[in-house]
Amino acid sequence: xxxxxMAQKSSSDIQISIVVPVYRSEPILPKLVDAVLKxxxxxxxxxxxxxxxxxxxxxxxxxxxISKLANEHEYVKGINLRRNFGQHNxxxxxxNHVSGDIVVIMDDDLQHPPEVIGKMITAISDxxxxxxxxxxxxxxxxxxxxxxxFNDWASTKFLGKPRGLYLSSxxxxxxxxxxxxxxxxxxxxxxxxxxxxxTRSITAIDIEHQARLExxxxxxxxxxxxxxxxxxxxxxxxxxxxxxFMGFALALLSLVMIAIIxxxxxxxxxxxxxxxxxxxxxxxxxxVQTLCIGMIGEYLGRTYLKLNGKPQYTVAGLTWxxxxx
Length: 325
Fold this sequence. Notes:
alpha/beta, 9-stranded mixed beta sheet, undecaprenyl-phosphate 4-deoxy-4-formamido-L-arabinose transferase activity
């Protein structure tokens, strides 16, 4: 049997692919690999899964650890990105290399308990396209919880997300949906938006949110705002419609104010000119105009980068047992 035939046979045996974007998790990775193996063994899938670890150009020694784990375990595959592209783009890199019929996406910090993967697989086997998870006891700081609530409202308005569905980064997806998702080759990937573009056959299960095993989370407030902008401007024209509505509302308000001032001037000729109110009005209208121009600039900028072929990700190397490149 040739090496190519062996690779085909190996891929055909894979039922579950688990994709994990990796960033600053060097000490956690061995424990993550062991926990995933235990979960798959409990589900009698120890010989039928793959764990794809995507190193998003982590500044620590995560890639060295991934390479070592891939050399020790046949089910571990490593993907090394040339630079930091962000969690969703790294996830897309992993999705483009899966072999399983069901694909699970999870974080690298063990806040997502691998032991519930079996329940997610069952949900997909029951006929759903996607199974998300809901946290019963979130271990996130207050600002992140409030941000999630805002993101939940925004994704409902902009993406048509079903009410009550929490877009967790811990989810299981049917392979057919993954094949549609990876057709998107733009530089600003938002996996949940792509999923909602493909299907509404979605369910969710409750899980206990674990504390991060070591270190601190990698998502800052700035990262969360960037993700929200990606969601709002890459998958919806609602912000542009909002800008148009604001422009119409301000024009109408201006007409009303002009009429009021004109009437007051006729009734009270002695009334002095309102310098303060004039400046306040100018500043307000100017601020709204700047906001609207910024929104338009976001759309134009993303279109420009897409047309100029800005890459979604670039791979520096792949590694798995007995094969390293």
